[in-house]
């Protein structure tokens, strides 16, 4: 089955959660179906869902008999144990011959190369593809289709598709995330349930209040986005050159999904038959009546702002909502002495001879912090590509000034977490001109590796590359990264297994308040359009910082120079008691996330870690005399097995 408009193929791609649902959906008006197998996909939370090996074989035969395609999701991050399981599973899938696999972890690409497999590969939305260089890099690695970032508008998609020639897949209907793909670590830090490993507990759909400037605002569900609804905009989707129109819903029931698919199928056919006389609204009222949430076109036509937030009855069971609540507000666990001792024992078991004394790196947010890091003789100083307001981005003159006084401290320039074509133009000009007095770059996305690997600056992979196993680490190293930051989602067992098996230089974030969520959505807009309902000061950060508040704590949200929001821990990550054992695992560098601290607070923290690394800490106290600046200390995801 195939549809064409002006010679361009259009595919309607439908989800199926079980074999029973697949049987109904594949007989509906879709052109292709995607589903997960028994392991290694992003829908592992619900028993009875996903297909068995036998069902996969049968499903492929049914679909191909109908001249329809099947894509199988192998789209979560792999632990070291998963890597071994993946070898056998990928061999089975290669022999079964689906039309493509949808993947997130770079380990899949490495395994396919290593095993000589020929099954086609599509890049999952969890790869967060958002620029032309990323598309080129994935094409070089054998990827034939890219599912675009959820934040990509249609005009950008059109431009990237035309310039790259790559097939693009775009979500057109269903449940969306408020956070950039694979940039949400909230669930893993609070529950030990990784959103990048198919186990998200959806803290984005908790009931929050927003505080800022001493006032409380009635935001209710400020992160809970509406469902995507592009039914009335199929002409614009087709004009943009999108190859595949993807419906979300592997957890939806059969009747709902078949009805939805048939509505979209009928609309596409009607438009192809008569584009001038096309009626956009034929099934709109019926789709609206049967919705799971209110509808939005999300980022298809630009940043939607607060219009994208589902404020009505989210998670309550009233009106049209199903009332399905995955979790309720939960505080990050406190660091406990008993858990620290368990971790130290486990890490010591996995230890190996350290190659050298670990270095200490500090990421800062302004020049005062940067000068302090140099003054204290830290090994590396990281200047971020995303600077929290009210500070401003580091200028070329700032970099030169720091380079002139850095002494033995290595100076690294970070790149923005999300880079569009404008960002690449700006950094091209900065990095391809006169030689900067920096020792390297902090790389945040695959496209930046491809663009700047010939620029002559050493490259370190940042935390959001989500390196979770030795295969993905090896692939990135092969592309030119000299050091990699360990995924922040690793539980104790996964961390011990990975670090003991990986021989590449690794960095671990050991202290601070790293971002739990990174989003295009501007939470500060709530305070600009809503009237406050009460007065209340922030407990741990200044009142000019926006805070998301529940009865379990307060998470500060900082906005960067691009207007993007970074939701941080309410507590501080602290691995100080375990540095010796981490050193025994061969960790090359420990990083302090220092952006939110005053210079005096940062001075105390740096001194404590320098003493611990140097072996001069004489404190009997577990924390070396450190006291929390914010709501307490936490071990993050390492507290979970």
UniProtKB/TrEMBL annotation:
Task: Give GO BP annotations, semicolon-separated.
Answer: proteolysis
Taxonomy, superkingdom: Bacteria
Q: Name one GO molecular function term.
A: peptidase activity
Q: List the Pfam families hit by this protein, alphabetically.
A: Peptidase_U32 (PF01136)
Keyword field contains Hydrolase = yes
Keywords from the named record: Hydrolase, Protease
Please identify the protein, giving its name as recorded: Peptidase U32
């Amino acid at each position: 089955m195939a549809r064409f408009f002006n010679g361009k193929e259009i595919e309607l791609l439908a989800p199926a959660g079980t074999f029973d649902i697949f049987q109904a959906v594949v007989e509906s008006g879709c052109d292709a179906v995607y589903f997960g197998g028994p392991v290694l996909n992003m829908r592992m939370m619900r028993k009875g869902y996903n297909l068995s090996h036998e069902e996969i074989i049968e499903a492929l035969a049914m679909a191909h008999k109908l001249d329809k395609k099947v894509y199988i999701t192998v789209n979560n991050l792999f632990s070291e144990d998963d890597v071994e399981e993946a070898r056998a599973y990928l061999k089975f899938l290669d022999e079964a011959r689906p039309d493509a696999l949808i993947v997130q972890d770079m380990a899949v690409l490495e395994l396919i190369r290593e095993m000589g497999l020929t099954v086609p590969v599509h890049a999952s939305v969890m790869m967060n593809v958002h620029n032309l260089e990323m598309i080129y890099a994935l094409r070089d690695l054998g990827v034939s289709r890219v599912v675009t970032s959820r934040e990509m508008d249609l005009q950008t998609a059109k431009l990237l598709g035309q310039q790259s020639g790559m097939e693009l897949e775009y979500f057109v209907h269903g449940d969306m995330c408020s956070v950039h793909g694979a940039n949400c670590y909230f669930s893993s830090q609070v529950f030990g349930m990784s959103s990048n490993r198919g186990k998200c507990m959806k803290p984005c759909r908790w009931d929050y209040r927003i505080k800022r400037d001493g006032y409380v605002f009635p935001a209710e569900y400020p992160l809970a986005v509406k469902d995507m609804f592009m039914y009335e905009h199929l002409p614009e989707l087709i004009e943009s050159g999108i190859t595949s129109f993807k419906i979300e819903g592997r957890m939806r029931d059969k009747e709902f999904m078949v009805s939805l698919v048939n509505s979209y199928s009928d609309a596409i056919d009607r438009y192809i038959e008569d584009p001038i006389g096309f009626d956009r609204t034929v099934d709109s009222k019926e789709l609206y009546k049967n919705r799971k949430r209110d509808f939005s076109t999300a980022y298809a036509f630009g940043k939607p702002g607060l219009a994208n937030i589902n404020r009505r009855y989210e998670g309550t069971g009233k009106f049209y909502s199903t009332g399905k609540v995955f979790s309720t507000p939960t505080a990050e666990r406190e660091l406990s002495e008993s858990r620290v001792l368990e971790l130290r024992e486990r890490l010591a078991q996995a230890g190996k001879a350290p190659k050298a004394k670990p270095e200490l790196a500090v990421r800062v947010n302004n020049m005062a912090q940067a000068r302090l890091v140099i003054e204290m003789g830290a090994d590396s100083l990281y200047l971020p590509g995303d600077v929290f307001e009210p500070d401003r981005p580091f200028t070329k003159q700032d970099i030169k000034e720091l380079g002139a006084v850095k002494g033995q401290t290595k100076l690294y320039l970070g790149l923005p977490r999300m880079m569009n074509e404008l960002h690449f133009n700006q950094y091209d000009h900065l990095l391809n001109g006169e030689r900067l007095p920096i020792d390297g770059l902090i790389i945040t996305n695959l496209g930046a590796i491809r663009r700047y690997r010939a620029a002559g600056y050493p490259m370190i992979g940042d935390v959001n590359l989500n390196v979770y196993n030795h295969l993905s680490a090896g692939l990135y190293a092969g592309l030119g990264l000299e050091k990699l930051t360990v995924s922040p989602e690793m539980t104790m067992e996964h961390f011990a297994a990975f670090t003991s098996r990986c021989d590449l230089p690794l960095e671990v974030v050991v202290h601070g308040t790293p971002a739990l969520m990174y989003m295009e959505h501007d939470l500060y807009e709530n305070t600009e359009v809503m009237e406050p309902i009460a007065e209340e000061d922030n407990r741990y950060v200044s009142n000019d910082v926006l805070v998301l508040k529940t009865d379990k704590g307060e998470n500060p949200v900082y906005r960067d120079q691009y207007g993007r929001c970074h939701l941080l821990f309410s507590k501080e990550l602290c691995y100080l008691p375990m540095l010796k054992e981490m050193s025994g695992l061969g960790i090359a560098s420990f990083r302090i996330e220092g952006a939110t601290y005053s210079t005096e607070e940062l001075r105390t923290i740096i001194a404590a870690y320098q003493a611990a690394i140097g072996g001069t800490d004489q404190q009997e106290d577990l924390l070396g005399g450190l006291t929390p600046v914010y709501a307490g200390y936490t071990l993050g995801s390492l507290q979970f097995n």
